[in-house]
């Protein structure tokens, strides 16, 4: 999965890291409705793809388009992100060494 390497690279620029990781777990949860999984997987796919509207190599603005897509997707399906997804996100964030 390209999610974690991309996430680690962008972690300092994402003000809602916990929500993003919870969205990842929601998208991979088979109990999540198919439509919701599709929305989240599309947004997460955009996040990990190396080619997008604003190149991620541009330090300050590189992830702004990714953040806009992810924020919109999470806002649309927020009620489907359950406590178990946040619990998994908290555990994952504690386990993964993120850049300072």
UniProtKB/TrEMBL annotation:
<feature type="transmembrane region" description="Helical">
    <location>
        <begin position="34"/>
        <end position="51"/>
    </location>
</feature>
<dbReference type="Pfam" id="PF06803">
    <property type="entry name" value="DUF1232"/>
</dbReference>
<keyword id="KW-1133">Transmembrane helix</keyword>
<feature type="domain" description="DUF1232">
    <location>
        <begin position="37"/>
        <end position="71"/>
    </location>
</feature>
<keyword id="KW-0472">Membrane</keyword>
<dbReference type="GO" id="GO:0012505">
    <property type="term" value="C:endomembrane system"/>
</dbReference>
<dbReference type="InterPro" id="IPR016983">
    <property type="entry name" value="UCP031804"/>
</dbReference>
<protein>
    <submittedName>
        <fullName>DUF1232 domain-containing protein</fullName>
    </submittedName>
</protein>
<dbReference type="InterPro" id="IPR010652">
    <property type="entry name" value="DUF1232"/>
</dbReference>
<keyword id="KW-0812">Transmembrane</keyword>
């Amino acid at each position: 999965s390209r999610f974690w390497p991309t996430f680690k690279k962008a972690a300092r620029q994402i003000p809602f890291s916990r929500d993003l990781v919870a969205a990842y777990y929601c998208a991979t949860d088979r109990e999540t409705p198919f439509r919701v999984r599709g929305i989240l997987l599309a947004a997460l796919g955009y996040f990990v793809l190396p080619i997008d509207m604003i190149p991620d190599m541009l330090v300050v603005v590189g992830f702004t388009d990714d953040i806009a897509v992810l924020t919109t997707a999470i806002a649309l399906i927020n009620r489907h992100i359950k406590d178990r997804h946040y619990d998994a996100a908290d555990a994952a964030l504690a386990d993964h060494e993120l850049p300072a």
